[in-house]
Amino acid sequence: MSDIHAIPKAELHVHIEGTLEPEMAFALAERNGLARPAASIEELRARYRFRDLQSFLDIYYANMAVLRTATDFHDLAGAYFRRAAAQGVRHAEVFFDPQAHLARGVPMQAVVEGLYSAVEEARARGLSADLIMCFLRDVPAEDALRTLRRAEPFLDRIIGVGLDSAEVGHPPDAFAEVFSLARTMGLHAVAHAGEEGPPAYVRTALDVLGARRIDHGIRALEDPRLVARLREERVPLTVCPLSNVRLRVVDTLSAHPLPRMLSEGLLATVNSDDPAYFGGYVADNYAAVRDELGLSQAELRQLAVNSFEASFLSGERKAELAAEVFAWALEQQ
Ligand code: ADE
Ligand code: ZN
Question: Which residues face 15 on adjacent strands?
Answer without folding.
Answer: 95
